[in-house]
């Protein structure tokens, strides 16, 4: 059997995880998806001898990253866009992905450059309407409504823009791959062709990706491995804040966050997120505590609120927003055990205001204080706190305590409760915070 016959041998792909099998199956043996594997014929491989050079060769040209001009976007990328990088940005429908990338295209194009926006979801007229609404001013922002990925590559080679934006990777396709747009084969093949364009020409490419019901980016999981940077845009639609997070970055640190606010003129950068996120709080109300979280290198002071009310059923309700539910259950158990508060007879609601999502254990202490404050109806004023709670009730230190302290001092927050001194247990912290009448 020669090479060409091997290339034409059909294989079968899972549309969920991209698993490849030599025979048809009615389910995926890797991810256990109940859908049958889909037949596909892989493209024949190319022949040739690629050039190999030393990493420190004089022929290697190192091209530094290019700042976008949007400070919050540059922060998440680690300073700017690297030439030839492929960036995937995901988010829920309507969160502002297309709007954000129009701002990026406008900033990168500037007065002399060009940015090509290839849209397969909207017409040119629709994108023009949004551009006028958000104030796109650069004449170098070009728009093309195209669905075929090969046409996108052809237009990009002809126009030679400074950045290519594809909206979205799930809606473009190629005739040489099986299935419809959005399927595993189409997404993988379309992304591979765009990545090949980026690596051979040095053109930075930004792909917009849809998300599934569970919040992950639609398409094969290999898509996130293929690209260089994965960003995720989310936020609270009611308050208008949007948070851009770095999930993967081959050229910088991850877990960075950029903060934007949705306005009538598009997404505006928030230069002082701590001040904005806590500016509307009522210090006379019970059940509210400030928490200085750290996203990457950036400290952000957020407000954690809790509401504790008598349960109306035999099974008290626990509703959580912005913090892992299992962690809240653990904190509730610690408060009930070491502060003797009968929380098992109460409905408890905990929320991080502003749409932030927190996963670090440093939120344990402020959550416990907010719950105790609401249960005892004792306002804590402008208190800020951080610390991890052990199952035995001790308050443990968390990383970057100095950064947290500096941020709360910058915005003038008092009082401050942090691990170390003078209290070392949750009982002592609650006693000194004014809960003596509620403790037993």
Q: What does this 3D model show about the protein?
A:
With 440 residues, the protein is α/β, with parallel strands linked by helices. The chain folds into three domains: 1-42; 71-271, 3-Layer(aba) Sandwich (Rossmann fold), CATH 3.40.50.300; 275-434, Ribosomal Protein S5, domain 2 (2-Layer Sandwich). 27% of the residues lie in helices and 23% in strands. The chain is built from twelve helices and 20 strands. The strands form five sheets. A nine-stranded mixed beta sheet has the order 6-5-7-8-4-9-10-11-12, with helices on both faces. Strand 11 (257-263) and strand 12 form a beta hairpin. Helix 9 crosses helix 10 (364-376). The longest helix has 18 residues, at 184-201. The radius of gyration is 26 Å and the shape is globular. It starts with a helix and ends in an 8-residue tail after the last helix. The model is unreliable at 1-7 (pLDDT under 50).
CATH class of the largest domain: Alpha Beta
- CATH architecture call of the largest domain: 3-Layer(aba) Sandwich
Q: Which percent range fits the helix content?
A: 25-40%
Structural class, please? alpha/beta
Largest sheet: 9 strands, mixed
Number of strands: 20
Radius of gyration: 26 Å
Distance between the termini: 82 Å
Fraction in beta strands:
15-25%
Mean pLDDT: 87
- Identify the overall geometry: globular
Strand order of the largest sheet: 6-5-7-8-4-9-10-11-12
Number of helices: 12
The CATH superfamily of the largest domain turns out to be: P-loop containing nucleotide triphosphate hydrolases
Q: Provide the low-confidence segments as ranges.
A: 1-7
In CATH, the topology of the largest domain is named: Rossmann fold
